[in-house]
Amino acid sequence: MTIKTVVLVHGAFADGSCWVKVIPLLAARGLKAIAVQNPLSSLADDVKAAHRVIEMQEGPVLLVGHSWGGAVITEAGNHQQVKGLVYIAAGAPDTGQSFNDWWKDYEPAPGAAEIKPYGEGYVALTHDGVRKHFVQDLPAAEADIVYATQGPLAVACFGAKISRAAWRSKPSWYLVAAKDETIPPAVERDSAAHMKGETLVLQSGHVPMLSQPEAVADFIASAAAAIDA
Length: 229
Prior knowledge:
Layout: E1 5-9, H1 22-28, E2 32-36, H2 43-55, E3 61-66, H3 68-76, E4 82-88, H4 99-103, E5 115-117, E6 122-125, H5 127-134, H6 140-149, E7 153-154, E8 172-177, H7 185-195, E9 199-202, H8 208-211, H9 213-226
Parallel strand pairs: 1-2, 1-3, 3-4, 4-8, 8-9
Antiparallel strand pairs: 5-6, 6-7
């Protein structure tokens, strides 16, 4: 059986609409793609949201995560229906690590300074943070939509530990965003190397699904085709 379904997991300061350009491109390649809407309230809540979507699908799935969504798929990917993982400029903590542990030894990217409090216990990106460091390779009008639709993140999310890193036991792929100003490209490259899976380096900002959707769709589709489920 081959993979026919792709489940897409967005990250912090985003929602499922960040996949809007990739979904029709995957459909054109014969893949069903469905996006999870993360509550961004805790790692456990986001994993539960991913599992809910996974369990509504027939057969095996390829799980794709962007940014904070990488931590989510690292935990949620242990689900038996998940046969492979694709990381798009994404966090990839190891077993026993949190997202904060994963990137703490790297010099922060410029966008980190634009993460500000958003009510009690939550943070969000500023307007300048989105335009200049999150989607700096998008037109301003499109960047403003990303800003307006972002989901604030519970601060506690980045401190939650992974119980078992799914990328250690399942086929995994990593797309490095070489011009990322939200997550340091160096930690992305190192994570890709640790996984020992196929790696694609794009000259893109943090959200290549919006700036280079064809390349992202091709990468996801090639991963789906490579899995013998």
